[in-house]
Amino acid sequence: MTVTENFRRSKENIIQSFNFTDIAEGTGIVRFSGYNHQEDTVDGYSLAQNTLYSQVIQSSSNSTSSAYVREMDLDFDVKFNLSKRVKGLAKVNFTFGAGDGSADNAGDNFMVVNLRHFDGTTEKHIASGATNVISNTPTAIVSQTANMEFDISTLQEFKKDETLRLNMEYFTKRTGANNHVIAFSHDPKERDPTTPMASSDPSELTIDIPFILDL
Predict the structure, then answer these.
(1) Dihedral sign, Cα of residue 56, residue 63, residue 106, residue 134
(2) How far is CA 15 from CA 12, 28, 82, 214, in A?
(3) How many Å apart are CA 181 and CA 105, to the nearest integer?
(4) How far apart are CA 56 and CA 69, in angstroms?
(5) Side-chain half-sphere of 33: how many Cα atoms within 13 Å?
């Protein structure tokens, strides 16, 4: 009698390193950290599983308008070397702040987080959400650690060399006579942030991505 041997084809997910798995949902969760780095003469922003030192601990700007303005718009990218499938609950953690304690320094501030699929030419929207509004005054520098969840209910299929993009937008308006400082942190090494965040605030920007398991 001839016995036929069947060999299961190797799957890319078998060698994928997951932070943890959700067998009930059939997903493996990978945590990426956002960081800043130098690209020739300009700043770059990326996502990595490695715990790297960000070139700067936080990105900052100034609130100068009496109407809401998008003052920061930064893309943190990870390009996949293998095809990937994403579906499930994604989670984003980060800290942002506003104010510097100077006279007539007040404002309202919030951030918008966008998840996007970038194929090298076109961006496709996956999910988005906004934080609460935080308000700074001449006597109150404020910060908030945001914990945001996004239900990716539609399967997202990434081909080789396509990019998952975490877009971070900071919206702010000045309600006092003077401008104020705004910032959010993104240091995988969790070094102490500076004003307008407290030194005890978390400084890491993380995103948990649910990849489909081949069970």
Answers:
(1) negative
(2) 6, 12, 11, 11
(3) 9
(4) 23
(5) 20
Eight-state DSSP code of residue 193: P
Query: Two tokens at 197?
Result: 């965040």
Tens digit of pLDDT for each residue in 140-177?
Answer: 899 999 999 999 999 999 999 999 999 999 999 999 99
Residue 170 has which token pair?
């900071």
Element (H, E) at 29: strand 27-39
Q: How far apart are CA 89 and CA 101, in angstroms?
A: 38
Which pair of structure tokens corresponds to residue 88? 């499930």
Print the domain residue range for 52.
29-212
Q: Is 183 helix (H, G, I), strand (E, B) or coil?
A: strand
Distance CA 52, CA 208 (A): 17
Q: How many domains does the chain have?
A: 1
| Residues counted in the chain | 215
Cβ neighbors of 188 (< 8 A, separation 6 or more) are 33, 34, 35, 48, 50, 51, 52, 53, 54, 204
Flag whether 180 is in a domain. Answer: yes
How many CA within 13 A on the CB side of residue 195?
10
CATH number of the domain to which 93 belongs: 2.60.120.260
- 146: closest CA among 170, 181, 117, 180? 170
**140 domain residue, yes or no:** yes
Q: Summarize pLDDT for 173-190 with one digit per residue, the tens.
A: 999 999 999 999 999 999
